[in-house]
Amino acid sequence: MLEGAPAVARCAVRRHHGSVPTEPISALVGRFYRELWNAWDDSAVGATLSPEFTFRGSLGQETSGRDGWRRYRDQVRSGSADFWNEVVELVCEGDRAAARLRYTGTHTGPLLGLPATQRRFQYAGAAFFSSDGQWLTSAWILGDLDSLRRQLT
Could you tell me the pTM of the whole model? Predict the structure, then answer.
Protein backbone atom coordinates (compact mmCIF):
# COMPACT_ATOMS: atom_id res chain seq x y z
CA MET A 1 0.00 0.00 0.00
CA LEU A 2 1.52 3.32 -1.04
CA GLU A 3 1.20 6.58 0.87
CA GLY A 4 -1.96 5.67 2.79
CA ALA A 5 -4.01 4.82 -0.30
CA PRO A 6 -6.83 2.41 0.49
CA ALA A 7 -6.40 -1.20 -0.58
CA VAL A 8 -10.16 -1.51 -0.99
CA ALA A 9 -12.41 1.51 -1.48
CA ARG A 10 -16.14 1.21 -1.99
CA CYS A 11 -17.18 4.83 -2.04
CA ALA A 12 -19.43 6.78 -4.37
CA VAL A 13 -19.16 10.45 -5.29
CA ARG A 14 -22.09 12.42 -3.93
CA ARG A 15 -23.51 15.81 -4.72
CA HIS A 16 -24.66 18.44 -2.27
CA HIS A 17 -27.25 21.17 -2.84
CA GLY A 18 -28.41 19.88 -6.20
CA SER A 19 -25.78 20.44 -8.86
CA VAL A 20 -22.94 21.83 -6.71
CA PRO A 21 -20.24 19.13 -6.61
CA THR A 22 -18.67 18.32 -3.30
CA GLU A 23 -15.51 16.48 -2.44
CA PRO A 24 -16.26 12.81 -1.83
CA ILE A 25 -15.56 11.61 1.67
CA SER A 26 -13.20 8.99 0.22
CA ALA A 27 -10.95 11.81 -1.06
CA LEU A 28 -11.06 13.61 2.29
CA VAL A 29 -10.19 10.44 4.24
CA GLY A 30 -7.41 9.67 1.76
CA ARG A 31 -5.97 13.17 2.19
CA PHE A 32 -6.30 12.91 5.99
CA TYR A 33 -3.99 9.90 6.09
CA ARG A 34 -1.78 10.57 3.07
CA GLU A 35 -1.05 14.27 3.68
CA LEU A 36 -1.95 15.16 7.26
CA TRP A 37 -0.50 12.03 8.85
CA ASN A 38 1.96 10.24 6.59
CA ALA A 39 3.48 13.38 5.03
CA TRP A 40 2.99 15.46 8.23
CA ASP A 41 1.78 18.29 5.93
CA ASP A 42 0.31 20.95 8.18
CA SER A 43 -0.64 23.10 5.18
CA ALA A 44 -3.31 20.52 4.22
CA VAL A 45 -5.18 20.79 7.55
CA GLY A 46 -7.33 23.77 6.49
CA ALA A 47 -8.46 22.07 3.28
CA THR A 48 -9.29 18.79 5.05
CA LEU A 49 -10.63 19.41 8.57
CA SER A 50 -13.55 21.66 9.49
CA PRO A 51 -12.76 24.43 11.99
CA GLU A 52 -14.93 22.57 14.54
CA PHE A 53 -13.48 19.11 13.76
CA THR A 54 -14.13 16.64 16.60
CA PHE A 55 -11.60 13.86 17.02
CA ARG A 56 -10.97 10.78 19.13
CA GLY A 57 -7.55 9.34 18.34
CA SER A 58 -6.35 5.74 18.36
CA LEU A 59 -4.57 6.41 21.67
CA GLY A 60 -7.91 7.32 23.28
CA GLN A 61 -7.63 11.10 23.57
CA GLU A 62 -10.39 13.44 22.40
CA THR A 63 -9.88 16.87 20.86
CA SER A 64 -11.88 19.53 19.08
CA GLY A 65 -10.90 22.03 16.41
CA ARG A 66 -7.96 22.00 14.06
CA ASP A 67 -5.48 23.08 16.74
CA GLY A 68 -6.69 20.34 19.08
CA TRP A 69 -6.06 17.78 16.35
CA ARG A 70 -2.62 19.30 15.69
CA ARG A 71 -1.67 18.90 19.37
CA TYR A 72 -2.67 15.22 19.24
CA ARG A 73 -0.72 14.69 15.98
CA ASP A 74 2.36 16.36 17.50
CA GLN A 75 2.11 14.16 20.60
CA VAL A 76 2.02 11.04 18.44
CA ARG A 77 4.92 12.29 16.34
CA SER A 78 7.01 12.98 19.46
CA GLY A 79 6.50 9.33 20.47
CA SER A 80 7.11 7.91 16.99
CA ALA A 81 8.83 10.13 14.43
CA ASP A 82 8.09 7.63 11.65
CA PHE A 83 4.47 6.86 12.60
CA TRP A 84 2.63 5.58 9.52
CA ASN A 85 -1.04 4.98 8.77
CA GLU A 86 -2.12 2.40 6.20
CA VAL A 87 -5.75 2.32 5.10
CA VAL A 88 -6.43 -1.38 4.57
CA GLU A 89 -10.09 -0.96 3.66
CA LEU A 90 -12.40 2.03 3.23
CA VAL A 91 -16.20 1.84 2.97
CA CYS A 92 -18.34 4.95 2.40
CA GLU A 93 -22.04 5.70 2.57
CA GLY A 94 -23.07 9.26 1.72
CA ASP A 95 -21.27 11.60 4.11
CA ARG A 96 -19.90 8.81 6.34
CA ALA A 97 -16.94 6.46 6.01
CA ALA A 98 -15.41 3.57 7.93
CA ALA A 99 -11.81 2.45 7.59
CA ARG A 100 -9.79 -0.53 8.74
CA LEU A 101 -6.26 0.64 9.53
CA ARG A 102 -2.77 -0.61 10.25
CA TYR A 103 -0.42 1.66 12.20
CA THR A 104 3.36 1.19 12.23
CA GLY A 105 6.29 3.07 13.65
CA THR A 106 9.32 3.15 15.92
CA HIS A 107 9.01 4.06 19.60
CA THR A 108 11.37 7.08 19.57
CA GLY A 109 9.85 9.14 22.42
CA PRO A 110 7.25 9.01 25.20
CA LEU A 111 4.17 7.07 24.12
CA LEU A 112 1.37 5.73 26.34
CA GLY A 113 3.38 6.96 29.31
CA LEU A 114 6.32 4.76 28.37
CA PRO A 115 9.83 6.11 27.66
CA ALA A 116 11.34 5.45 24.23
CA THR A 117 12.47 1.87 23.60
CA GLN A 118 13.46 2.20 19.89
CA ARG A 119 11.27 -0.85 19.24
CA ARG A 120 9.28 -1.17 16.01
CA PHE A 121 5.54 -1.60 16.47
CA GLN A 122 2.43 -2.38 14.48
CA TYR A 123 -1.17 -2.31 15.66
CA ALA A 124 -4.64 -2.41 14.17
CA GLY A 125 -7.31 0.27 14.21
CA ALA A 126 -10.75 1.24 12.98
CA ALA A 127 -11.96 4.73 12.15
CA PHE A 128 -15.36 6.31 11.56
CA PHE A 129 -15.59 9.64 9.72
CA SER A 130 -18.27 12.18 8.86
CA SER A 131 -18.14 15.02 6.35
CA ASP A 132 -20.17 18.07 5.37
CA GLY A 133 -19.06 17.74 1.74
CA GLN A 134 -16.28 20.29 2.11
CA TRP A 135 -14.35 19.06 5.16
CA LEU A 136 -14.15 16.15 7.51
CA THR A 137 -16.29 17.14 10.50
CA SER A 138 -15.45 14.26 12.83
CA ALA A 139 -13.26 11.19 13.22
CA TRP A 140 -13.70 8.58 15.92
CA ILE A 141 -10.80 6.13 15.95
CA LEU A 142 -10.00 3.03 17.97
CA GLY A 143 -6.59 1.40 18.21
CA ASP A 144 -5.56 -1.96 19.63
CA LEU A 145 -3.73 -0.39 22.56
CA ASP A 146 -3.25 -3.72 24.33
CA SER A 147 -1.21 -4.95 21.38
CA LEU A 148 0.73 -1.68 21.22
CA ARG A 149 1.58 -1.78 24.95
CA ARG A 150 2.78 -5.40 24.72
CA GLN A 151 5.16 -4.41 21.90
CA LEU A 152 6.57 -1.42 23.79
CA THR A 153 7.20 -3.19 27.11
Answer: 0.86
